[in-house]
Amino acid sequence: MSHITPVLAPLMALLRSRKVMVALAFLGATLLTAAVPDLAPHRESIQVALLVFGSALIAGIAWEDGQEKRALGIEEALAAVREGPDSPREAGKHILFEAADTLLGEEDE
User: Fold this and answer.
1) Does residue 109 sit within a domain?
2) Which of 43, 57, 66, 105 has its CA at 20 to 30 Å from residue 18's CA atom?
3) How far apart are CA 102 and CA 65, in angstroms?
4) Cα dihedral 57, 27, 22, 66 sign
């Protein structure tokens, strides 16, 4: 059970990100359009529209987050990204290191 927690905690931190949630929702919608046979004649145009709309929404969220960080001050924002224990960056690094340790067969002692 102790091996599951180090992986789940960073994944949960990533799922708190609005950009990740939007990307997963649009991925699900795209896969759904591929699975419905009645949409076959229009599948490509629907998937392109979903991709464009999803990308625009993620870009808008990123712009909003950037404006918020600018309002906080650049130094404070950089410190928050570098030092935040629940930041998506730290969560992503933790997942990659855990995956590398698992693949290489190294365990914490």
Assistant:
1) no
2) 43
3) 34
4) negative
Q: What residues in the chain have per-residue pLDDT under 70?
A: 1-4, 72, 74-91, 94, 106-109
d(CA 87, CA 77): 12
40 touches 23 (CB < 8 A): no
Domain total in the chain: 1
Residue 98 placed within a domain: yes
Cα 11 to its chain centre, rounded Å, is 9
Q: What tens digit of pLDDT does each residue of 86-101 get? A: 666 666 776 777 777 7
Contacts of 84 (CB under 8 A, 6+ apart): 90
Q: What domain range is 77 assigned to?
A: 5-104
- Does residue 62 fall inside a structural domain? yes
What is the C-alpha separation between 42 and 40, in angstroms, rounded?
Answer: 5
pLDDT single digits (tens) 19-29: 999 999 999 99
Contact 15, 93 (CB under 8 A): no
pTM above 0.70, yes or no: no
